[in-house]
Design brief:
By secondary structure, the protein is mostly helical. The chain is 72% helix and 1% strand.
Length: 442
C-alpha cells in the first residue's frame, strides 16, 4: 500500500516516475479530451477544398503526427525550442478562417507555403516575447478571439446542413441531417454540462459517437469504401501537398501566428499557475512559441496544419494537478502511433458532416465566449467599448459586403476580405493610438 501511494504521488511531480498502470489512464484521459479537436480541422479543410479521400486521410494522419511531435518537443525542449512543461498540442481551430480563405483562393499548397514562412518568422516572436507582449493586452487578444469564434459559425452551420456535397446534391438541410446534428449537439452539451470525470472531458467524443451510431442506423450516410481500401501502415510523404507562396497569404498567416502566440501565452500561463502554483517564466513562454513555430514548419512539409496548446487539456492539468512528464510522454507516443495507421485516419473520415457540425459548434461557441471573457479583464469604459465595437463592426461588415473592396488591388482585397484580419488590424492600431484610459466601466 505504501508503495502504491508513493507511486501515485509521482504523478504530481514534473520528473516523477509513476507506474505505467497509473500513468496510462491519466494519459488516455488527455488523448480522449483532444482527439476529436485534433482531427476535425483537417477534415473540415479537406471537405471545404473538395480534396480526394486519400488526401483527406493523409491530412488526418499528419494532424496526429504533428500533434504528437509538438507535444513531445514542448515536454523535452531542444536548443530552447519547447517550454519543458506538460502540454497537449494539436491542430488549432483558430486558424481555420484563414486556412479556408487561403485554400479557396490559391489551393492547399498555398496553405503550407504560407505556414512554412510564418512558422519561421514566428520563431522571432518567441525570441522577443518579453518586449512585444505589452502590445497585446486583453482588449486586443479578446477582440481577435471573439472574431475567430464568430467567423467559424458559418462553417459549423454548413456542416450541420450536410456540407458542400449536400449543397451540390440538392439535399442540403434535409431532415436526416438536422436530426444527426441536433442529437450530436444535445449529447455533447449534456455530457459537458452534467457529466463528471471522463464523461465531462470527453463530451464531444461521446456526442460524435452517438451521432455516428444513429447515422449507421439510418443507412446510406456512412461510406466505408475508403476505410476498406486504406493500408495498415503508412509514412507521411514530404511535400505531398506541395508548397506555393503568395504575399497576401503569407501576411495573413504571419498575423495569425502573432495572434495565436498571444493565446499560447495564456494557455502556458494557466498551466504554470494551475499545475505548479507559479507564474510562467519568459523562457518558458518564449520556448513554447518557438517550439510551436518550428513544428509549424515541420507540419508544412508533412501536411500537418498549425498547432496550439489545447485549452481542455490545460483545464485537465489544472484540475487533476497531474504534471508528470511520463504521463505526457505516453500521450505523445499514442498520437504519433495513431498517425502512422491510415485505417485510423480513414475511419475518422467516415464521420458524417452533420455530426461534425453538431459537435464543433460547441467548440466555436466556447471560442467566442473565451474572447468575451478576455475582454472582461479590462474595464469596458467608453474608450475600450468603442475600440472593440469599431473593430468588429468594420471587420464583420466588410466580410458581409465584399463588393465594397471591388476597386482595391487583389492583394488588399484578399487581406481585408477576412473579418479576422480587419478586426485585428483595427483593434491593434487603435489600442496604440488612442490614449490609455483605466477608468471604470461606464
Amino acid at each position: 500500500m505504501q508503495k502504491e501511494n508513493t507511486s501515485s504521488s509521482e504523478l504530481f511531480q514534473l520528473d516523477g516516475k509513476p507506474r505505467f498502470r497509473q500513468a496510462f489512464p491519466q494519459a488516455m484521459q488527455h488523448v480522449l479530451a483532444m482527439l476529436v479537436g485534433n482531427i476535425t480541422p483537417p477534415m473540415l479543410i479537406a471537405g471545404t477544398l473538395s480534396l480526394s479521400a486519400g488526401d483527406k486521410i493523409m491530412l488526418t494522419q499528419a494532424a496526429m503526427i504533428i500533434g504528437g511531435i509538438t507535444t513531445l518537443l514542448q515536454l523535452y525542449p531542444i536548443m530552447g525550442f519547447g517550454m519543458g512543461m506538460p502540454s497537449v498540442m494539436g491542430v488549432a481551430f483558430a486558424y481555420m478562417p484563414i486556412l479556408t480563405m487561403i485554400g479557396n483562393q490559391y489551393g492547399i499548397s498555398a496553405i503550407f507555403g504560407s505556414q512554412l514562412v510564418a512558422g519561421f518568422l514566428s520563431i522571432f516572436i518567441g525570441m522577443f516575447m518579453k518586449k512585444i507582449r505589452r502590445f497585446f493586452p486583453p482588449i486586443v487578444s479578446g477582440t481577435v478571439v471573439l472574431s475567430i469564434g464568430l467567423s467559424l459559425y458559418k462553417t459549423a452551420i454548413t456542416y450541420m446542413g450536410g456540407g458542400s456535397g449536400a449543397q451540390s446534391a440538392g439535399n442540403f438541410g434535409s431532415g436526416q441531417f438536422w436530426i444527426l446534428a441536433i442529437v450530436t449537439l444535445v449529447v455533447t452539451l449534456a455530457c459537458s454540462l452534467f457529466g463528471k470525470g471522463y464523461v465531462k472531458v470527453s463530451g464531444m467524443l461521446i456526442g460524435i459517437a452517438v451521432g455516428y451510431i444513429i447515422a449507421l442506423c439510418m443507412g446510406g450516410i456512412v461510406d466505408f469504401t475508403e476505410f476498406r481500401e486504406a493500408g495498415l501502415i503508412s509514412v507521411p510523404i514530404p511535400f505531398h501537398f506541395g508548397l506555393s507562396f503568395h504575399a497576401d497569404a503569407i501576411v495573413m498567416m504571419v498575423l495569425m501566428y502573432v495572434v495565436q502566440a498571444v493565446q499560447t501565452i495564456g494557455d502556458v500561463s494557466s498551466t504554470a499557475m494551475g499545475g505548479f502554483g507559479r507564474e510562467a517564466t519568459d523562457q518558458e513562454l518564449g520556448g513554447a512559441i518557438k517550439g510551436q513555430s518550428i513544428c509549424g514548419m515541420i507540419g508544412a512539409i508533412i501536411g500537418g496544419l498549425p498547432t496550439d496548446p489545447y485549452s481542455q487539456n490545460v483545464g485537465l492539468i489544472c484540475t487533476t494537478k497531474v504534471v508528470a512528464k511520463r504521463v505526457f510522454l505516453i500521450v505523445g507516443v499514442i498520437m504519433l502511433a495513431a498517425g502512422f495507421f491510415p485505417k485510423f485516419g480513414a475511419l475518422m473520415t467516415t464521420i458524417p458532416q452533420p455530426v461534425l457540425g453538431g459537435a464543433t459548434i460547441t467548440v466555436f461557441a466556447a471560442i467566442t465566449m473565451s474572447g468575451i471573457q478576455l475582454l472582461g479583464e479590462q474595464p469596458m469604459n467608453y474608450r475600450n467599448k468603442m475600440i472593440v465595437g469599431i473593430a468588429l463592426a468594420i471587420g464583420i461588415g466588410i466580410e458581409a459586403v465584399p463588393d465594397i473592396l471591388q476597386f482595391c488591388p487583389q492583394l488588399v482585397k484578399n487581406i481585408l476580405g477576412s473579418s479576422l484580419m480587419v478586426s485585428f488590424l483595427i483593434v491593434f492600431l487603435l489600442n496604440i493610438i488612442v490614449p490609455e484610459d483605466n477608468s471604470p466601466a461606464s
